[in-house]
Amino acid sequence: LSDPVSDLIDVENREVSVAALHDPDLYELEMERIFAKAWLLLGHESEIPNVGDYVVRLMGEDQVIVARAADGQVHVSLNVCPHRAMHICIADSGNARVHKCIYHGWAFRPDGSFIGAPIEKEKMHGEIKSKEQLGLKKARVTVYGGLVFATWNHDGPTLEDFLGDMKFYYDMLFCRTDGGLEILGPPQRLTIDANWKTAGEQSACDGFHTLTLHQSLLEGGAMAGEENTEHESAPAMYGVNVSGNGHSLRCIPADTSWAMMAGKTHAGMTDDERLELMPPPGITKDLLPQVRKNLSAEQLHVFAKAPPVVGGMFPNVNLLFIYSPLRDGTLGSAMVMHSINPKGPEKFEWVTYFFAEKDTPEEVKAMMRAAATQGTGTSGVIEQDDSDTWPHMSESARGVIGRTETLKYQAILGETRPDDWPDKAKVYSGFSKDDAQWNWWLAYRDLMLAEA
Ligand code: FES
């Protein structure tokens, strides 16, 4: 497959072959050209606060050890023993100053460097390589807002370049308080029988599905509209999508969110008044001074006008930083990130990380964890809807006739930037449309063709 996507992605008509959701050869190339090249989310450094702490995560189908080493830094090493390819870490997480392979006893530090092996000289027949050559394969790491990203592409773009203009918006979510984010407990993990791209492209601001797939939420009042307005039946359908380098976020007007959740409007207020009345999801009022200090005036204006609340990061991150009603009727918020880890052409692992700002009061963190679990956890009312659709799409792609169909992205209107919106990334405002999702596919195509 020298050019794996020209027949699958019809750029002129903006259609993608359904076969792309199944093809095993294409999947192998995705592992090489996307998952071995792109920056991937592996978790948060608050999961491994102490020297020796580690978690085992996936980069594509490769297991990696994410560990805090003696230098205090986060290191990411391939969890493959250089002796006979045994996994070094068998547990999902723990603390170890030495990682010793259970097969023949080779030992490694948390930074991946080789310490030694039992009967080292005898085993090597005197031809022992230098210890530097026997360490675990290392990934390139960047910690951004406490989130741990890694890539095998040591000579490729920095994470900052990879995020491009979208970093302006991600900073608003990950770098807005002095203490930064804190993870709330270990992640939830669920295996879904579907191709990873079903969830991946949906994460690029598929607003349309809210109206139908999540109709029960609308009917239940969790996303009810304000009476007698254009948003009455579908408030979440209106917003501002921002997109760049395949990444995207959906910003929902604060007025709409306020109307949806509290049945009130605060139109006509200044940015400061709006922020004070209804801070962005995940921000308690006592954290507002920190947010004002850490963000620019442009970022604060976006927060007051239409905070980014859902979306993703190319290629395999979905995020929701949302207002969320609690069972007792009060208004809470949930901060959640999912990573979509491929495990074959028809299977992926859906990992759910729950967050709060570190400086959030403990009782509010508990409420946020509850709200996130109820809404976006493995058994949450939102994700149960979504995870029901993805296997159907994958099954469609298995049929010899089904795979001849196409995914259609014709709802494209081009950029529509509100007058007072910052000049950052591509901006599409108004009713939901396909632009951001199509940009996801273009980014996918670019990477898949990069080595063709
Ligand atoms: Fe690890 Fe032999 S496979 S020491």
Under CATH, the topology of the largest domain is which?
Naphthalene 1,2-dioxygenase Alpha Subunit, Chain A, domain 1
Give me the oligomer status: single chain
The largest pleated sheet is described as: 9 strands, antiparallel
Radius of gyration: 23 Å
Q: Which ligands does the model contain, each kind named once?
A: FE2/S2 (inorganic) cluster
Mean pLDDT: 89
Number of domains: 2
CATH class of the largest domain equals Alpha Beta
Structural class: alpha+beta
CATH H-tier superfamily of the largest domain: Naphthalene 1,2-dioxygenase Alpha Subunit, Chain A, domain 1
Distance between the termini: 8 Å
Number of strands: 22
Architecture per CATH nomenclature, i.e. the level-2 architecture of the largest domain:
Alpha-Beta Complex
Number of helices: 14
Poorly predicted sequence stretches spanning 5 or more consecutive residues: 224-231
* Structural shape: globular
* Approximate helicity band: 25-40%
Beta-strand proportion: 25-35%
Can you walk me through this structure?
It contains 14 helices and 22 strands. With 452 residues, the protein is an alpha+beta fold. The strands form 5 sheets. Strands 13, 14, 15, 16, 17, 18, 19, 20 and 22 form a 9-stranded antiparallel beta sheet that branches. Strands 6-5-4-7 form a 4-stranded antiparallel beta sheet, with no helix packed on it. Strands 1-2-21 form a 3-stranded antiparallel beta sheet, with no helix packed on it. Helix 1 packs across helix 14. The radius of gyration is 23 Å and the shape is globular. The N and C termini lie close together (8 Å).
